[in-house]
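Input chain follows. Return structure tokens only.
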Amino acid sequence: MKVRLLGGPLAGRVLTIADAPWAGRWFTAGDADWGLYVPGHRNPATGTVLAEVRVTIPRRR
């Protein structure tokens, strides 16, 4: 499965992951802020998932 990241610090990048469902994940690029990417749309023909950025900063515990 391929995940195309839309928006945020990793916009335009494509991840190739296992053929398991992808529930989203926190990512960062270099010194950029954290970005939460959540699955938005899955193209049934190609299997590519478009992951949208959800602008949020993780809370420290």
